[in-house]
Amino acid sequence: MSRPPATTRWPIDDVLARTDLAALLDEFAQPDQRARRWHCPLNDHDDNHASVTMHRDQRGHERWRCWSGDQRHRGDAVDLVQAVRGNTRAEAIEELATRAGLQPGRELPPIAPRKPTAPPAVVLDERVVAYANFCARLLWSPLGAPVREWLHNRGLGDDVLRANHVGADPGRDRLRRSRGIPYGAGAGATFPALDVNGQICYVQTRALEPRPGYGKYDNPSAALAPNPRLTWAVPPGPARPGQLLICEGIPDALIAAQAGYRSVGLLGTNALDPTVAARIANVATRDNLDVTIITDNDDNGVGKHLGQQLAERLGDEGLAVTTLEPPEGHDLSTWARATRAWARQLGHDRPAEQLTRGDLGATGLA
Ligand SMILES: [Zn+2]
Question: Residue 155 burial by CB count (10 A; 0-12/13-18/19+): exposed, middle or buried?
């Protein structure tokens, strides 16, 4: 068989649509066993850290990126082939076209269905995890007492705090930190975001007394820890089977977890990351979970809008979703403080065990 003439130009979109970048990376680069990451495939980069991640750009194209900062260590599948082979762009496209079974004069083969969206690869600096773990220990020390009290007043009991590595940041005067770690102007509660396996993948620090002009939450810099957009909260005891609650923010997700629910907390409500629904749907489908979205009943309707949007996207993923709105002016935390019976609204006759066990009793609940 002779090679097609060098002038053969496959439409790049056709080639990329038939290329599985993850499979190509598996072949060209050393995959990391633990995460959806790869060691950099470029010869001039001795990459101990598995710096390569994959994402989909706004046009839906799969791209890879090496986080070494080298601008050449990134791109689409064509760039990957060129970087590894050192060949021309036309040759790289030709190779991908051949791999995809594209042949001159033949009808285009069908595009293989995509695998479920992989979770966004989070490049996490270990200092972020170290900070979250250190603060989690401090919470139970005398330095953590004011934060502990603040958390208790918000209805969070010790069991759920421990299970989710919630911590106390005593402020930068008392705890030195690298740049990019939450600043810590004063004391704050640290709320780690957990991945679906319960590993810390992010942390948000909630100032006990937010400074005027600053938000309540301080996040690590994106260079140290990309925002995972959601957290999987861990119930402190056995979880209610078959149920998944989706809440806004980590504290609300902890309230749900405390009541025995597997729960997801959405981090930030400005934009719904396109992977959020897919990641939730993957787990809900795998574990056969009924999904309930609990929106904030806020004045501006942001929570409601977000809930509708997410419900639609989960619907597109084939899930049946219930949306539940707390009484006016409430989010789940304040609702749970107002009445222990909130779980009955979910159609569960018996309030969750954790709620009746007295975890919240010390907080002066109605
Ligand atoms: Zn590299």
Answer: buried
* CA of residue 44 to ligand 1 center, whole Å: 8
The CATH number that applies at residue 54 is 3.90.580.10
Same domain (yes/no): 331, 218? no
How far does residue 50's CA lie from ligand 1's centre (Å)?
9
Whether the CB-CB separation of 280 and 230 falls below 8 Å is answered with yes
208 touches 147 (CB < 8 A): yes
- Tens-place pLDDT, residues 70-103: 788 899 999 999 999 999 999 999 999 988 888 8
User: In sequence order, what are the residues at sequence separation of 6 or more whose Cβ sits closer than 8 angstroms to the Cβ of residue 212?
Assistant: none
- State how far the Cα of 337 lies from the Cα of 79, in Å rounded to an integer: 54
Give the H/E segment covering residue 168.
strand 167-169
Model confidence at 354, pLDDT cuts 50, 70, 90, reads very low
Q: How far is the CA of 59 from the centre of ligand 1 (A)?
A: 24
CATH number for the domain including 361? 3.40.1360.10
Q: What is the mean pLDDT of residues 61-68?
A: 86
Number of Cβ atoms within 10 Å of the Cβ of 226: 19
Q: What is the pLDDT of residue 358?
A: 33
Cβ atoms 310, 272 nearer than 8 A:
yes
CA–CA distance, 233 with 255 (Å, rounded to integer): 9
Cβ distance 220 to 146 under 8 Å? no
